[in-house]
């Protein structure tokens, strides 16, 4: 059902069984997949693609111009996957030509109220972002991450899969996969045990992750030394994923807070 007060550009493509609430605006060259629910007073900006069965609540803006002073109204995009929930008054910006021109959101994500997802962000799937978290431009978030409310993530940071960031954290460096993170200057607190168990990992798999965490953060080694030791561990997807993440890190990795 499309409410009669909704404004839909004639170039927009609307799938089957889509609901669009009152006073919502769908701009040019938008594609909305089947089964989506668009609440009231929502704005879907031009060149935005929504997959199937997304639920966009009232006041959300998807596909707004990027918060970048160099943006000159170039044709850039937001691409959202399937089965995402975006709660009230959150914003998702378009990409910029400084990236590849696309902000990407995967599948089955839960984005709570008043969250900002900046330009050129690349999000995976099964991510939970709690209310009022602010995600800077060019951030990469892997699958199954949980981000606490009021957290700020600096532009260009990378957040590894199955990590959890506590509320009101300031993240200015990359977060290694499987980590538990907290603090006004976010630091490693340990392994995200709750997340690992909920994801169905076995005790043996969790043991490997805990060993990698210990090598990186508890043995007071240089990062190069830690990588050498991890390289010598038996092959596993957790070892390889961590090594790949470390090699692509550009901002450096968050470390464990040391007591004075």
Automatic annotation (TrEMBL):
Molecular-function GO terms, alphabetical: acyl-[acyl-carrier-protein]-UDP-N-acetylglucosamine O-acyltransferase activity
Positions of the UDP N-acetylglucosamine O-acyltransferase C-terminal domain: 174-253
Keywords recorded for this protein, A-Z: Acyltransferase, Lipid A biosynthesis, Lipid biosynthesis, Lipid metabolism, Transferase
GO terms (BP aspect): lipid A biosynthetic process
Record Gene3D superfamilies: Hexapeptide repeat proteins (2.160.10.10), Udp N-acetylglucosamine O-acyltransferase, C-terminal domain (1.20.1180.10)
UniProt key word Lipid biosynthesis: yes
SUPFAM superfamilies, alphabetized: Trimeric LpxA-like enzymes (SSF51161)
Pfam families, per the entry: Acetyltransf_11
Name this protein carries in UniProt: Acyl-[acyl-carrier-protein]--UDP-N-acetylglucosamine O-acyltransferase
Protein species of origin: Paenibacillus uliginis N3/975
């Amino acid at each position: 059902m499309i409410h009669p007060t909704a404004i839909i550009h004639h170039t927009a493509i609307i799938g089957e069984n889509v609901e669009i609430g009152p006073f919502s605006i769908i701009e040019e060259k938008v594609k909305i997949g089947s089964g989506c629910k668009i609440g009231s007073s929502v704005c879907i900006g031009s060149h935005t693609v929504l997959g199937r069965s997304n639920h966009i609540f009232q006041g959300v803006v998807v596909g707004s111009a990027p918060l970048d002073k160099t943006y000159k109204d170039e044709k850039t995009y937001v691409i959202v996957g399937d089965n995402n929930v975006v709660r009230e008054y959150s914003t998702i910006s378009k990409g910029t030509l400084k990236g590849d021109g696309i902000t990407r959101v995967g599948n089955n994500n839960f984005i709570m109220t008043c969250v900002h997802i900046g330009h050129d962000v690349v999000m995976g799937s099964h991510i939970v972002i709690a209310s009022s978290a602010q995600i800077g431009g060019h951030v990469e978030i892997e699958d199954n991450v949980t981000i606490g409310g009021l957290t700020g993530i600096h532009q260009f940071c990378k957040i590894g899969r199955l990590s959890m960031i506590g509320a009101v954290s300031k993240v200015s460096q990359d977060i290694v996969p499987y980590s538990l993170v907290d603090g006004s200057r976010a630091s490693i607190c340990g392994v995200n045990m709750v997340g690992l168990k909920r994801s169905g990992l076995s005790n043996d798999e969790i043991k490997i992750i805990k060993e990698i965490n210990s090598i990186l953060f508890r043995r007071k080694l240089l990062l190069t030394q830690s990588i050498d030791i991890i390289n010598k561990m038996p092959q596993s997807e957790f070892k390889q994923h961590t090594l790949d993440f470390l090699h692509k890190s550009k901002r450096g990795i968050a470390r464990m807070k040391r007591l004075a």
